[in-house]
Model the fold of this input.
Amino acid sequence: MERMRSSISMAVIRRLPKYYRYLNELVEKGVTRISSMEFGRILGFTASQIRQDLNCFGGFGQQGYGYNVKELRDEIANILGLNKTNNAIIVGAGNLGQAIANYSGFRGSGFILKGMFDINPRLVGISIRDIKIMDIDEMSEFIKKADINVGIICTPKEGAQEVADRLTGERIKAIWNFAPTDLDVPEDVIVENVHLSESLMVLAYLMNQRENAEDNK
Amino acid sequence: MERMRSSISMAVIRRLPKYYRYLNELVEKGVTRISSMEFGRILGFTASQIRQDLNCFGGFGQQGYGYNVKELRDEIANILGLNKTNNAIIVGAGNLGQAIANYSGFRGSGFILKGMFDINPRLVGISIRDIKIMDIDEMSEFIKKADINVGIICTPKEGAQEVADRLTGERIKAIWNFAPTDLDVPEDVIVENVHLSESLMVLAYLMNQRENAEDNK
DNA sequence: TTTTTATTGGTAATTATTTAACAAACTGAT
DNA sequence: ATCAGTTTGTTAAATAATTACCAATAAAAA
Done:
């Protein structure tokens, strides 16, 4: 355990999953080795950036050879912590919550969905993929009992902060937040936001801009 | 029409929706003016950054006064192109597609959902919020007829590129992509990705890191 | 074995982004 | 009207991120 320099920029970290995804595809295709140049061509990055990024975590390549695809894939899985399991619950079992419950990507990243909660009595009792929707009042007890450390917030923005407070009150470690608001949490709690409305507005901006550029031609 | 300098960085653009969101909240609270310093305190940005960002688009403030909240909100809405309407279709009407169809955020950003498509015959014919799910073979005709310029891809990764090809073949302008893959499109087509798996892996990384840091204490 | 070729890891240069600083200019009080 | 207090827009400085470069070294060829 030597390399624990916590000062790796988010820019680098957000590229890791993409590396991982493409490395998996290469493994599937049976590619055993790859140079940073070729890998960069595939990803649309410079070779330099790839080498720089990977070197934040260790020297995984070899001169004159490149990188061993399978080995690098496993290294990155390890860096991302995909081999560790984290138990999660979804709070807010409406359309989005149910869609997330059906999301097949949990497998691949070590998260296990253990429960779902909602305030709406009509939803309580329904099961989604063998996960029963429970009343939100049972949440605290469940978190303790089932060793939950991740909360996925799929409520409307109005309820989100209160849910976050309850989750952090139970010493949850991280929140995956789909509610269109910024959460106020203790500094040792990790929040990863998925703000669909912001993504959509960026799309609107780019379309609008493109259109203006056309007009000015 | 003077200010059309297209060289505004994505870093700035991705902050605009957040400005817009908080300005809306301030309007609702009845706040009429705000200084960059106070606004920065609320958003967690520096006052400098806010002034710098806004000045990419124009001088909306006034010395000794600050910014008029409502006015600035409307300016940003205009910059983001939220007043223009864009007709959209969803391709892939599974859980995620249906959840997106129910998504209420379209309103606020000028997008109008006009149709949904799927290859699964069991889904074709069903309606979600008055939007009928159609067979994907009807898509091309529908795009022309209903003046669609945005495609929302909610298929598994396997079908995504083919859907993208069909969409761009019909001269669609932009794609909101939820499939866990990178799409290859003509350069004049805008793609905005929502890669949930990548977001989740970043969360995994941050949790893993935090844990390692704890251990080293 | 020797030579040529490929390719890394690391350092330096460049470019981009963020933050600081401050003159100019407005507000609001006296 | 004048003046003190604010706060902007803008330029300069600092910091961060990306790209270019190259010596070192391994692989492959001769």
User: Anything to note?
Assistant: Chain A touches chain B through 63 residues (CB under 8 Å). Residues 177 and 193 of chain A are 5 Å apart (CA to CA).
